[in-house]
Specification:
Elements: E1 3-7, E2 10-14, H1 18-28, H2 46-63, H3 74-84, H4 86-94
Antiparallel strand pairs: 1-2
Length: 103
Amino acid sequence: MVDFVKIDGKQIPAKFNHRAKSYWEKSTGLIWSSLFKSENPVVPTVEQSMILCLEVLREGHRRNGDKKKFNITLDDVYDWADDYDLETQITNLIFGIDKDEKK
């Protein structure tokens, strides 16, 4: 199953799974579980958070079966975080938060 985020009125596939976490860990040098330690949890930088968004989108693209080349860049992710609240959309997807539930 692939989830979607909404960017400029379009549904963009997104998938948070072990592959996305693994690529994020390789890209950032962080370990996913270190974010959730009870003592001294690691707090990712903005760039590390944007890289996670990129990996979730990359994995969504792959899992959605799209045969076109994945062409979303880290710059796109930064822009979408500013313009469409992408980081919140991805965070909600990761933690299973339905935006309609929060109201």
